[in-house]
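Q: How would the structure tokens look for this protein?
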Amino acid sequence: MISVTLETLQDVIERALRRAGLTPEDATVCARVHAESTRDGVSSHGLDRIPRLVDYLARGWVDPQGAFESVQALGALEVYDGHLGLGVPHAMRATERAIALARQHGMGLVAVRNTTHWMRGGTYGWQAVEQGMAAIMWTNTESCMPAWGASEQSIGNNPLVMAVPGGRAPLVLDMAMSQFSYGRLGVLKERGEQLPVAGGFDDSGQLTCDPQAIQVTRRILPTGYWKGSGLAILLDAMAALLSQGRATHEIDTVERGSGTGSSQVFMVFDPDQLGGIDACRAMVDDMTAHLSKAAPDESGRAVRWPGASTFHRRHDSADIVVNPDIWSQVQRLAGDRPRS
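A: Here is the predicted structure in token form.
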């Protein structure tokens, strides 16, 4: 592994995306999100995704000109069509519009249909809390996980994001409905590490902690077994209903790579109209203080709360550790000669 600065990481990604056909504005936005995701410890949806995104652009699976078009406005609820455009800028626009609606109505909901992969969902939760807003957001995906009781992929892992602003630090949950995402499996496989708990099934139908075995069968385990499966199904149905877009089984027919054709929901709430932002922040600070005082388990590690690791990473000035093979690949995409 090698280390690079955030500025260098963003610059190389931006130039790679501009060469792939993005406008300067979109390349800058996407590069910042991918670089920050890598810094925050989610390289699977940051730097590591750039070669795949460039490939999707070259194939025409993601349209860099795809507009974010208004379809319907119902007071605090609005629907947009993404026209298979860039998922990251679309999601950022949807979040900003939901924030504007929340400031007007107390809450705002923006649903987006026919869009593409939003990369790290937590990006948009942080976008909301940094403006003093609370949020619930989710996306559906193509079939990539077996429903509970099935041996083949039939539901999406349908990531869910929830965020509430705090004074010292916010609460930000970003989780897929699978115990581990495919991106996480890939990272641990490259490191030669096992999963801390079972994350899927091997070719004998047995639960395993071996990421490579799960990658082979593609039978990832729903979080909470039947509960995660049920939640994934309902998140899918609600996303398709609210956006009037595709459900998972319909996304499967698009056949343009991961996340293309998906439906997404961005719900934002204004704490100022719900008891006041100061009360909200005090409540979150009290919660995190309470959690931090709890006696640690046998591992001896500090008790964690959602968003804690990202918050601490964002206040760490250390360089960012990246996979050298992927870094060299992205450097080439940017037109550079890779160097260690």
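The two ends are 10 Å apart (CA to CA).

The mean pLDDT is 95.

Upvote if useful.
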